[in-house]
C-alpha cells in the first residue's frame, strides 16, 4: 500500500464488512446444520413446522456455509491483501461496502425463499432465479473492484495470490450462471442427463474454482508473511495455479459414474480426479517448504495457525477425493455418509479453517489493535479442529456401514438403527462447532468495535 503525507490511511471498510458477514452467517449456518442433525435423530421434531423441516434446513445450511461463511471470510482477506500486494489503493471502498450490503441481502433472500419452499430442487443450485441473479450481481461487483485495482496497480509483478483471487471470482461467475441455467428463469434446469452433467460441472466447481483458489490465495499470502520468509517457489505456485484450472474443471462427472452419462466423459472425470494430485501437491509442497523450520512462528500467529491446519486438511480431502472417484471404491462410498464426511473435511476443514485464519490474520491489521481475545480464538481453533476430525470419523464409519449393507442388498430402513448412535454423536459434535461460531462472532465484534486494547505501533 502506498503511503505519503497527503494520502489518507485505508479504512478497510470492505474487509471489515466481510469479516462481520462471515462471522454472523457462520453462526446461522452452523445452527442450521445442528438443527438438521438433530432432525435426523428425531424426525418428528419439526414435522408440523414447514419452514424448518429437514428438506428445507439442509439446503439453507449448505448454501449459507458456502456463500455466507467461507466465501465472505476468504474475500475479507482478499480485500485486505490485494491492495497491499499491488501497492495501490482498493479501486472503490464505496463499491466494496455496497457489495457487502447486497451480499447480505442476497443471503437473507436465500434463507427466506428456501425456508418457504421455493427451490429449484438441484443440489447446490437450489436457489430460485431472482436469488441466482443476486449472486451473479455481487460476484460481478467483486470482480470489477478486483480487476480495476489490478489495472491501477503500481507493482508490475502479479503475485500468485492475486491470480487465485481474480480467477476464483471470474470462474465462479461463469460456472454459477451455467450450473443454475439462469437463461431459463422458469425452471432453472435443463432436461434429463444434460442437466445432471451441467449441474455437477457447477456443483464440484463451486468448491474447486471458488473456495480452493480463494483459500490458496490466502495461504500464499499469510504463510510467508507469518514465517517472515520468501515463498519457496514462484514457479511452483504458477504450476499449481494453471494445473488446478485445467484439471479441476473436468472432474464433476465423477458424481455420475452410476448413471447413463457418456463413457468418455466418465473416463475424463476419473483420470482428472486422480491427476488432481498435481495441483494439490504443487500447492502443498510450496506452502510446507516455505514454512519449513518456521512452525514456531506459525504457532504464535493464530491466523497462520488456522491457515496451516487448513492446508493439512486439504491434503487429506484431496487424496480421499481422488480415491473416491475410482469406480471400485465408489460402489461402497457413494450416496451415503462417507460423502458427507468428505464434504465436511473439504469445506469446514480446508476452506473453513483458512477462511477463519484469514479473518484472524487481518483483524489486528485492519483495526490496528490486537485481537480482543487470543484465548477465544485459540479455543475456537480447537473446537473447530475437534469438530472436523469428529465429523470425519463418525460419518465415515456410518457411511461404511451404509455402503456395505446396501451393496449386499440390505434395505435402507433396516440400516438406520445401526447408525442411529453415530447420528447422535454427529449432532453433539455439531453443537461444539455451533458454539465455536458463537464465540468467534463475539470475538470479531469485540475486536472491530469494542476493543479496549492499545493501538499497535
Number of domains: 1
**Overall number of strands:** 0
Cα distance spanning the termini? 17 Å
The fold-level CATH name is Cytochrome C Oxidase, Chain A
* Chain-averaged pLDDT: 94
Q: What general form does the structure show?
A: globular
CATH superfamily: Cytochrome c oxidase-like, subunit I domain
Break the fold down into its secondary structure elements and pairings.
Layout: H1 13-41, H2 54-86, H3 93-115, H4 129-151, H5 160-179, H6 193-227, H7 234-248, H8 263-275, H9 277-290, H10 295-300, H11 302-324, H12 327-333, H13 337-367, H14 374-407, H15 412-449
Helix pairs in contact: 1-2, 1-3, 1-15, 2-3, 2-6, 2-13, 3-4, 4-5, 5-6, 6-7, 6-11, 6-13, 7-9, 8-11, 9-11, 11-13, 13-14, 14-15
Tell me what the structure shows.
The N terminus is likely disordered. It is built from 15 helices and no strands. The longest helix has 38 residues. It has a single domain, classed as Cytochrome C Oxidase, Chain A. By secondary structure, it is mainly alpha-helical.
Amino acid at each position: 500500500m502506498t503511503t505519503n503525507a497527503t494520502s489518507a490511511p485505508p479504512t478497510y471498510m470492505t474487509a471489515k464488512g466481510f469479516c462481520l458477514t462471515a462471522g454472523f452467517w457462520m453462526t446461522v449456518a452452523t445452527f442450521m446444520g445442528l438443527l438438521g442433525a438433530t432432525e435426523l435423530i428425531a424426525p418428528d421434531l419439526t414435522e408440523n413446522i414447514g419452514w424448518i423441516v429437514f428438506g428445507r434446513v439442509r439446503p439453507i445450511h449448505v448454501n449459507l456455509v458456502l456463500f455466507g461463511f467461507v466465501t465472505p471470510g476468504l474475500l475479507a482477506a482478499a480485500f485486505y491483501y490485494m491492495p497491499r500486494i499491488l501497492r495501490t489503493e482498493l479501486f472503490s471502498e464505496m463499491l466494496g461496502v455496497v457489495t457487502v450490503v447486497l451480499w447480505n441481502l442476497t443471503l437473507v433472500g436465500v434463507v427466506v425463499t428456501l425456508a418457504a419452499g421455493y427451490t429449484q430442487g438441484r443440489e447446490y443450485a437450489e436457489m430460485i432465479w431472482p436469488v441466482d441473479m443476486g449472486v451473479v450481481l455481487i460476484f460481478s461487483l467483486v470482480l470489477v473492484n478486483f480487476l480495476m485495482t489490478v489495472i491501477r496497480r503500481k507493482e508490475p509483478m502479479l503475485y500468485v495470490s492475486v491470480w487465485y483471487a481474480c480467477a476464483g471470482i471470474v470462474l465462479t461467475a461463469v460456472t454459477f450462471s451455467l450450473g443454475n441455467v439462469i437463461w431459463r428463469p422458469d425452471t432453472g434446469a435443463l432436461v434429463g442427463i444434460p442437466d445432471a452433467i451441467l449441474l455437477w460441472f457447477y456443483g464440484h466447481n463451486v468448491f474447486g474454482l471458488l473456495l480452493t483458489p480463494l483459500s490458496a490465495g490466502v495461504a500464499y499470502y499469510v504463510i510467508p508473511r507469518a514465517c517472515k520468509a520468501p515463498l519457496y517457489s514462484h514457479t511452483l505456485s504458477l504450476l499449481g495455479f494453471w494445473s488446478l484450472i485445467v484439471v479441476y474443471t473436468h472432474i464433476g462427472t465423477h458424481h455420475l459414474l452410476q448413471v447413463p452419462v457418456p463413457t468418455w466423459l466418465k473416463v475424463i472425470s476419473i483420470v482428472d480426479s486422480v491427476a488432481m494430485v498435481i495441483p494439490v501437491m504443487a500447492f502443498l509442497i510450496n506452502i510446507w517448504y516455505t514454512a519449513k523450520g518456521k512452525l514456531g512462528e506459525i504457532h504464535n500467529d493464530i491466523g497462520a495457525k488456522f491457515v496451516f491446519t487448513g492446508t493439512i486438511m486439504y491434503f487429506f480431502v484431496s487424496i480421499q477425493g481422488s480415491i473416491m472417484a475410482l469406480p471400485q471404491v465408489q460402489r461402497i462410498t457413494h450416496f451415503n455418509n462417507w460423502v458427507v464426511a468428505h464434504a465436511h473435511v473439504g469445506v469446514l476443514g480446508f476452506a473453513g479453517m483458512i477462511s477463519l485464519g484469514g479473518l484472524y490474520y487481518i483483524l489486528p491489521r485492519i483495526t490496528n489493535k490486537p485481537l480482543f481475545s487470543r484465548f477465544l480464538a485459540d479455543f475456537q481453533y480447537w473446537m473447530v479442529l475437534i469438530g472436523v476430525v469428529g465429523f470425519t470419523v463418525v460419518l465415515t464409519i456410518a457411511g461404511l456401514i451404509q455402503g456395505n449393507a446396501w451393496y449386499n442388498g440390505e434395505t435402507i430402513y433396516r440400516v438406520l438403527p445401526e447408525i442411529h448412535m453415530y447420528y447422535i454423536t454427529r449432532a453433539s459434535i455439531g453443537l461444539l462447532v455451533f458454539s465455536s461460531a458463537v464465540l468467534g462472532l463475539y470475538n470479531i465484534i469485540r475486536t472491530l468495535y469494542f476493543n479496549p486494547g492499545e493501538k499497535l505501533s
